Amino acid sequence: MPYIANTDTDRQKMLEAIGVTSFEELLEAIPEPLRWSGELSLPSGSTEQEVVHEVQALSWENHSSERLVSFLGAGAYDHFLPGVVAELLGRSEFYTAYTPYQAEVSQGTLQSIFEFQTLICQLTDMDVANASMYDAASSMGEAALMAHAHTGRRDLVIAGTVNPAYLQTLRTYTGGLGLTVQLVPFPEGHLDLGSLGAMVGDETAAVFFQQPNFLGILEPQAEAADIARRAGALVVVCVDPISLGLLVPPGQTGADIVLGEGQALGNAMNFGGPFLGFFACKKELVRQMPGRLVGQTTDRLGRRGFVLTLQTREQHIRREKATSNICTNHALNALASTIYLSLMGREGLREVADLCLQKSHYAQKAICRLPGFRLRFERPFFKEFAVQVPAPPGRIIQQLVAEGLLAGVDLGRFRMGLDDCLLVAVTEKRTREQIDHLVEHLGKFATQRAT
Fold it and tell me: Are 439 and 312 contained in the same domain?
């Protein structure tokens, strides 16, 4: 709560500056019948501490996510944020910096972006990464444009298990170009390789899939990439960066473009944004890559420096040569991810991923011991899973909010044929007690079904 230190003298000077002598004169433009002329029934003055306490009590009535134990997933995850991330991010030289249009005078900003790019390349085992995108959804749309521009082909084959929000964004990006989007069915919760092989052909620009997919299940990554390569199509993989603490990076299984959502890397859920997308590719594709790319060089005195090496948007180059109209990058969010990855290191990221894996499987087994609850797909999963429930998922979610729990995501929202399923995500933040608390309250619905 800010303290506004305006004295009577300060206020009088402001009134004089705008050409009036009193506050009442300032209000003369408001018709008299619309002005309040009575006495306001205001309480007596309170101390700052009392006011803060009252405002906090009101805010808690909103069921703040800070007071609810979150098992939400579907693209945004409640991971632990080390305190040092916010502490460094809030420094004035970072927090107030704007996107560097006169880039070379912003060496600190450029260095942080360069380090972000380097970390993404190391994480995904790809050749080059850009300075970040708006989010994973826009990254997928840009990847579709990039695949079309590189191959000249017009068909996009996409796993039906891709996040529906990402798919909708891709359709928006490609609709005006007349590109064809084909969805690969997923009868067992992952893309069907037989269907994929039948759908990929000479006009396929790229095959898209998510790893782990929207349902948390691991896709047959290497096999899908082989099918795409045999047809001369690009392989585009959307990854959960935390999972790469344990899983083979997509660069080792034939990916041409790797993208994903960086929210899990040091960024809070923030009620859905702002997030950041990361985007990496093979070096042969770099001139078709959207956004901007920071490179390292030396000046005429031999000192290390950083420059914007590629800027492929239409404001910088002739429109017909532009690869994208994306105008900026989420530098502050990318810096948060840079700090997080630097702090965690290889071993720390592996530990976080392993905790997500172990805790989610503990939760799944405990939930599926309840009568009427079962795992929808018997497939390996990472940190979230679809569970078939004995009551409407929306009702379960609504009732468990009163118990301090965000129980998951209703999959009926996404028209995937999973109307009786709840998508539950378990990160390293969730304790055994919290998971058991969720299972206890889900058990009330099992009892209702059983009787």
Answer: no
Same domain, 429 and 396: yes
User: What single letter denotes the amino acid at residue 393?
Assistant: P
Say yes or no: 160 and 277 in one domain: yes
352 and 336 within one domain: no
Q: What is the 3-state secondary structure (H, E, C) of 152-211?
A: CCCEEEEECCCCHHHHHHHHHHHHCCCCEEEEECCCCCCCCHHHHHHHCCCCEEEEEEEE
Please list the rounded mean pLDDT of every run of 10 residues in the chain (451 residues).
Answer: 74 91 87 82 80 80 71 95 91 73 74 95 97 94 95 97 97 92 96 97 97 98 96 98 97 96 94 91 93 89 87 58 70 94 96 97 98 96 97 96 95 95 97 96 76 39
89: nearest Cα among 378, 272, 451, 336 = 336
Q: Are 292 and 109 in contact (CB under 8 A)?
A: no
Instruction: Collapse the DSSP code of 18 into the 3-class scheme (helix H, G, I; strand E, B; otherwise coil) and give the result.
Output: coil
pTM given for the model = 0.83
Write down which residue in 283, 315, 341 finishes a domain.
341
Phi, psi of 261 (to 5 degrees): -100, 125
| 105 within domain boundaries | yes
Q: Which domain holds residue 429?
A: 69-81+345-450
